[in-house]
């Protein structure tokens, strides 16, 4: 057993999971079955309209993994984040309140957990939520908003894009917290054939809610958007945002993935490396340029790499992405030279 396994065992044994389920999550009755604590599901996705009389949810005392037959599952932190609408750090703090043992190294444990998640393929599946597709099925629909972003109806359908009209969110205006209804376009993320989360793009002009909001514990670091639909023998195009993927797909460029932003994890590099020919097309800002440099460094010895990059442009903003893709790409030498010119 390695160090983090031992820390984890300490944490699990020193945690009063029954009190946590009852006081924090609002569970009433708990049915113990070995390590599994069966109970009625309290997740807020609206999947248990008449309550959950025959309990479909359970939490494992040893692995601290939660599962609901209807909603899906994730870690105990993910459960608390979802039920109480907390950030990951807030959830960690709340879970810690139920730790009865002398877990001196709790922070170290969490750090270790995060480190493992961002660097390598998930091992113990500790923080990977898997949702039932029932949750997104009521949201799926073609929208004029996505039309206006250049995403074809065909692609909207294929990628199960939808609209969540009712979704309450806490916003903070510097003084008070307030609950608002924030309609969002929903972009589901299906990875290895499982729904592992979604991104929501707000449709209101209200500046307070964030433009994008991810489902809890969104598995950004160990997945790529559109990864399930690729042809390994074709060139892979790597972009930052799912919206760029959707736009390029609508133009018939379908071997494309997004890294969900400019920070690229080792595991994402590992996935990208499986493609012989890679075209890197990050956003034309300093974060995007850094990401391009990082990817070029990681891939240049093993893969055929070309780079597309222009100030203030990204795949969703250039006028004719198809023409741009064919005519503007640089090989590594040309790109390194252009970087030097930038610095002069
Ligand atoms: Zn449920």
Structure described in brief:
The chain has 344 residues and is α+β, with helices and mostly antiparallel strands. The protein contains 13 helices and 17 strands. It folds into three domains: 3-127, Zinc finger, CHC2-typedomain (DNA Primase, Chain A), CATH 3.90.580; 134-218, DNA primase, catalytic core, N-terminal domain (DNA primase DNAg catalytic core, N-terminal domain, Alpha-Beta Complex); 227-343, Dna Topoisomerase Vi A Subunit, Chain: A, domain 2 (3-Layer(aba) Sandwich), CATH 3.40.1360.
Task: Note down, in words, how this protein is organized.
The protein has 344 residues and is an alpha+beta fold. It has three domains: 125 residues, DNA Primase, Chain A; 85 residues, DNA primase, catalytic core, N-terminal domain (DNA primase DNAg catalytic core, N-terminal domain, Alpha-Beta Complex), CATH 3.90.980.10; 117 residues, Dna Topoisomerase Vi A Subunit, Chain: A, domain 2, CATH 3.40.1360.10. The chain contains 13 helices and 17 strands. It has a six-stranded antiparallel sheet with strand order 1-2-3-4-5-6. About 3% of the residues have low confidence. Bound molecules: zinc ion. Zinc ion (ZN) binds next to loops.
Name the features:
single chain, 344 residues, alpha+beta, DNA Primase, Chain A, DNA primase DNAg catalytic core, N-terminal domain, Dna Topoisomerase Vi A Subunit, Chain: A, domain 2, six-stranded antiparallel β-sheet, five-stranded mixed β-sheet, 13 helices, 17 strands, 21% strand, binds zinc ion
